[in-house]
Amino acid sequence: MRVLAAMSGGVDSSVAAARAVAEGHDVVGVHLALSTAPGALRTGSRGCCSREDAGDARRVADVLGIPFYVWDFADRFKEDVIDEFVADYAAGRTPNPCVSCNEKIKFSALSDRAVALGFDAVVTGHYARLHGGELRRAVDVDKDQSYVLAVLTREQLSRAMFPVGDTRKSGIRDEAAALGLAVADKADSHDICFIPSGDTRAFLGARIGVRTGTVVDADSGDILADHDGVHGFTIGQRKGLGISAPAADGKPRYVTDIDPTSGTVTVGSVDRLQVWSIRVERPVWTSGTTPDGPFEATVQVRAHGGMAAVTAEAITVDGSPMIEISLHTPLTGVAAGQTAVLYADDPDRGDLVIGSGRIGGTRGDRPVEATVGSATQR
């Protein structure tokens, strides 16, 4: 096949490209210039799309003996990922920009251009596996990226290749070293790639500006502090609340609700963070078929962690498709804007992605349970 290898300049995408070459594919490497300041240099493990990263990718392509190009997607990235990220925080939501980047850049804009140019598939260094068109977790669970790929449609997955998903990270580094790739020991990138400083609050504040509001106690209704904007808070946040005095019971307070209209940030005990049901918007079913009726699954609400057994059902609300998720045990820190991913709850297929969507709302009230004889019914 003629394949396009997306090369970030890191070890994972480099080995993915190398494996595609070794399998006999006709490979062309491409580095996506996503930064509006392409001359910027990486700071340790922070940042991406820097001059350093592009140079590393080019040197790997030279070693592999494949053509290499740099494609400028900076404007598209700003519009579809950065601007959406800022807008979501301004609206009191908690987005995952890596999900948006995969959905709208790497497997939409990039894949569409690749197909238009005659390529059969796009190769990336994501830690995930594809079997028969089904998206599954990677062998290295600690590095698994199926969560951020779960927004891809069946058609998009049919044009994707994830060569490193069957290998642990340590093995990928060893393979890169054996191939003589200088990126073998390069640090992984962390945090949000377009905020190299790591200071998300400052990044958002510079773009949203001051929109004052209050921090309110969930129990008493007392105003505990003033703030400069709801973009500085996320559900479940404990530190940086600007509160000078401890709670009456001496226990920590957490952000339990954000109202972007009034600018009110509500804080309370950890018990108030418990979520028993989730309403998911804009669902994507990776099989291409919407499940019929309720089904058992495992939900994951964060890229690393936040998992629980659930009963899920595809529903329609005011003409819009959604997913209603009832948790068997509660989760905490679940926020609107996050992505919920459903995995098959089966001993043989427990790593299979069923579908995903954006969390639109949650409920904290526990499902009613009625006892009939010795059985408990929910």
UniProtKB/TrEMBL annotation:
GO terms for biological process: tRNA wobble position uridine thiolation. It is found in: Cytoplasm. Signal peptide: none annotated. Residues 277-359 form the tRNA-specific 2-thiouridylase MnmA-like C-terminal domain. The active site is at C101 (nucleophile), C193 (cysteine persulfide intermediate). It is an enzyme of class 2 (transferase). Its main location: cytoplasm. GO terms for cellular component: cytoplasm. Residues 358-378 are annotated as: Disordered. It catalyses: S-sulfanyl-L-cysteinyl-[protein] + uridine(34) in tRNA + AH2 + ATP = 2-thiouridine(34) in tRNA + L-cysteinyl-[protein] + A + AMP + diphosphate + H(+). The keyword Translocase does not apply. GO terms for molecular function: ATP binding; tRNA binding; tRNA-uridine 2-sulfurtransferase activity. Residues 143-145 are annotated as: Interaction with tRNA. It holds the Pfam family tRNA_Me_trans. InterPro entries: MnmA-like, MnmA-like_C, MnmA-like_central, MnmA-like_central_sf, Rossmann-like_a/b/a_fold. Residues 202-268 form the tRNA-specific 2-thiouridylase MnmA-like central domain. The record marks H126, Q338 as: Interaction with tRNA. ATP binds at A6, M7, S8, G9, G10, V11, D12, S13, L32, G125. Belongs to the MnmA/TRMU family. Catalyzes the 2-thiolation of uridine at the wobble position (U34) of tRNA, leading to the formation of s(2)U34. This is tRNA-specific 2-thiouridylase MnmA. It comes from Williamsia sterculiae. The gene is mnmA.
